[in-house]
Amino acid sequence: MDFYQEKITTIHDFSNDSDMIINHLQELAVSRRSALIIPMLYSEIESPSLANIVYELNKCNFISEIIIALAASDKEEYEEVVRFFKNLNLTHLVVWCDGPGVSKVIEDMKEKGLDISHFKGKGKDVWLAMGIASLDVYAIALHDADILTYSRSFPAKLLYPILNPKLNFLFNKGYYARINKENRVMYGRVFRLFVRPFIEALQTDVGCKSEVLDYLQAFRYTLAGEFALTSDIALHLRFPASWGLEVGLLAEVYRNSSLKRTCQTDLGFYDHKHKSTGENISEGLSKMVNDIVLTLLRITNETTSIQISKPFIQGLYVKYRRSAQDLIRQHYADAICNNLLYDRHVEEHYVEVFSDIFLNTGSSYLEVDKSVQMPDWKRALSAVPDLREQLKNAALKDLELIRT
Predict the structure, then answer these.
(1) Rounded mean pLDDT of 63-76?
(2) What is the pLDDT of residue 172?
(3) What distance in Å separates the CA atoms of residue 245 and residue 308, rounded to the nearest whole number?
(4) Which of 14, 236, 323, 372 could form a disulfide with 197 if both were Cys (CB 3.0 to 4.6 A apart)?
(5) Long-range contacts, stretch 12-16, CB < 8 angstroms, 24+ apart
(6) Across the strands, what pairs with 272?
(7) Helix, strand, coil tally for the chain in percent (to 5)
(8) Residues 231, 133: contact at Cβ < 8 Å?
(9) How far apart are CA 327 and CA 330, in angstroms?
């Protein structure tokens, strides 16, 4: 049995008694309201996982409202998603993040010197949804729309450490085993073969010691898209609009909270759709690694005295590959002893692809810092005090497009 505690509090799953948690959450819902954000692409409506998520969420009456942050190309796609979520019995709002109403609010923000129109991606959609969700709830949870192994225990486990007044954590990160039991494959390659060994190379091999990097390394699954936090701290966070969202968010939580009020929770086994490597840094896992590199280099720049230079990038390239190769041997042993399929050649190939991306992206970072962050909500509200209300009303106005 794993009792190990990290630099942050780790909440294990010893009892698997989700009913106890859910019953208590139902009591707490009277005084501590909560919201759930689900960022999604239109294409995810075809996934069988989304229908199961709706089915399980209908059992979660401890959640006050659900915000679906939708990326859709046109009115037809938006309308189809709205119809789909009519099966969701909880109070919910589909926010068309690129819709005419929300886009008009974003355009009007420019007059106040706040331009977020150039931001694209999941981070921007999450930012918009967080603003709306934070209007009248104590805590906000977030998870993706493609979880194949979803159950009502997911949002319950995320929210419980935040909503339970005996604990009062400000931030809770989910972690899980990225194992597909049917095909006996170990996934989570970007974390296993890039983020973990890359931060380790930064810390130990290159001598880039940083409390923030220690903090990031304490999370068992840094790239997990499942987390919960209080509405108050949500308003103080700046995070990337790109695939660097999860890593950048953790660094922001570190800046705005304390270790004692941060935790991570075991969500059990987890599976979702799997991305291809991609032909270039605009696609698939390659884009993820590119965006994460930019975020980690920015964090290193902000929190250490290391001078990021061409020799630094080249040295880190060599150290990262060695660290990743060491981990491959460890993962291989773990897989063999658990009767999992594990192709060391394929894993080595991923390391080669990721290291080449790092070398190219790191070199471009030297020319200009391409990492981009959304403004925190405190700044946004200073410029436009009723911005959250405007966005919510705009989302409701976009709904009128369907009814007319």
Answers:
(1) 96
(2) 98
(3) 22
(4) 323
(5) 12/266, 13/157, 13/266, 13/267, 13/268, 16/268
(6) 147
(7) 55, 15, 35
(8) yes
(9) 5
Specify the residue for token string 């192994």. 149
Q: What is the reported pLDDT for 273?
A: 60
Question: What's the half-sphere exposure (Cβ side, CA atoms, 13 Å) at 178?
Answer: 19
Instruction: Indicate the residue type of 388.
Output: R
Which ranges constitute the DSSP H helices of 257-309? 284-303
Beta-bridged to residue 139, according to DSSP, are: 34, 230
Q: What is the pLDDT of residue 188?
A: 87
Residue 271: CB atoms within 10 Å: 21
Taking residues 184-208, report their average pLDDT: 87
Residue located via tokens 């005996």? 166
| pLDDT level of residue 332 (50, 70, 90 thresholds) | very high
pLDDT class for 16, splitting at 50, 70, 90?
Answer: low
Give the three-state DSSP class for 109: helix
What is the DSSP track for 214-271?
HHHHHSTTTT---EEEEHHHHTT---BSSTTHHHHHHHHHHHHS-GGGEEEEEEEE--
What would the two tokens of residue 328 be? 């491959």
Q: Radius of gyration over alpha carbons of the chain, in Å?
A: 21
| Cβ contacts of 221 within 8 Å, gap of 6 or more | 173, 174, 175, 176, 178, 188, 191
What pTM, to 2 d.p., does this model score? 0.93
Tell which residue, 61, 100, 5, has the closest CA to residue 401: 100
Q: How far, in Å, CA of 69 to CA of 197, rounded?
A: 32
pLDDT at position 193 is 96
* DSSP assignment of 313-333: HHHHHHHHHHHHHHHHHHHHH
CATH for 9-403?
Answer: 3.90.550.10
